[in-house]
Amino acid sequence: MQARLRLLVAAIPALAAAGCGEDASRPAGDATTMPDVVEIACSSEGARATTPAARPQADGVHIAVTNETDVRLSVVVRGAGGRGGGRDAAPGHSEHVFELPPGQLEVGCHGPTEDSSELVNLARVTIVDEEGVWVSLELACEEVSSTIADYGEGTTGGRGEPVELADAALRERGLRSSDRIEPAGYPDADGDAVRVVRDGETLAAVHFRRTPDGGLLLDQIDRCDGFGA
């Protein structure tokens, strides 16, 4: 497996507790009776939520979109700490999965000629993880170094479990024998992720992506500055 790695160093502000899952705002009600799909309607006037709160599923946050227009729209979801994603939604009904942590989400809709940074009339929903489906990947630091892999077409993935592959990837990057590597994120998500816990704090996170042959490619490593000290 060959890859080119580029190092990005950025100051990432500490996230609000609402973005970490365990301390997310929790509306009154039993989580087991709460819907597990967010319902969003998109019109020419923007997005509106018919479910103000929902619980995540094992593979992530499910958002069902009803596109009330006659053109294909882009659906943009923003979560805590600037995390987010986008999907295309054809006219009618479609469902999409986002691997975003519990907490407050903003959902917007825009047409092909509109700028997603200028969205108005956003729908706001709360993802409530009372059942502890999500295992947080947030790092216990403000200064984070990120290493992102860039692969050529046709690169095959490695074999093994994410924990084993992360151990091998981090040995030359400051991993200690006493560090604990454990699965994180959503258990059934398309992507695989693990976190490194040292003295009770998460100091690194490793993300993988699956290849068509069933292997795993290292996608991104996030480490607290000083992880290898």
Give your account of this protein's structure:
The chain has one helix at 162-170, and strands spanning 4-11, 38-43, 46-49, 53-54, 61-67, 73-78, 84-89, 92-98, 103-110, 123-127, 143-150, 180-184, 192-198, 201-210, 216-224. It is mainly beta. It has two domains: 4-17 and 136-224, no CATH class; 24-127, Sandwich (Immunoglobulin-like). The strands form three sheets. It has a six-stranded antiparallel β-sheet with strand order 1-11-15-14-13-12, with helices on one face. The chain has a five-stranded mixed β-sheet with strand order 4-10-9-6-7, with no helix packed on it. Strand 6 (73-78) and strand 7 (84-89) form a beta hairpin. Residues 1-29 have low confidence and may be disordered.
Short précis:
Helices cover 4% and strands 43% of the residues. The protein is mostly beta strands.
List keywords for this structure.
229 residues, five-stranded mixed beta sheet, 2 domains, six-stranded antiparallel beta sheet, Immunoglobulin-like, 15 strands
**What is the CATH architecture term of the largest domain?**
Sandwich
Low-confidence segments: 1-29
- Assign an overall shape: elongated
For the record, the count of structural domains works out to 2
CATH topology of the largest domain: Immunoglobulin-like
Structural category: mainly beta
How far is the N terminus from the C terminus?
A: 28 Å
Note the beta-strand portion: 35-45%
Any idea of the CATH class of the largest domain? Mainly Beta
**Count of DSSP E strands?**
15
Number of helices: 1
Order of helices and strands: EEEEEEEEEEEHEEEE
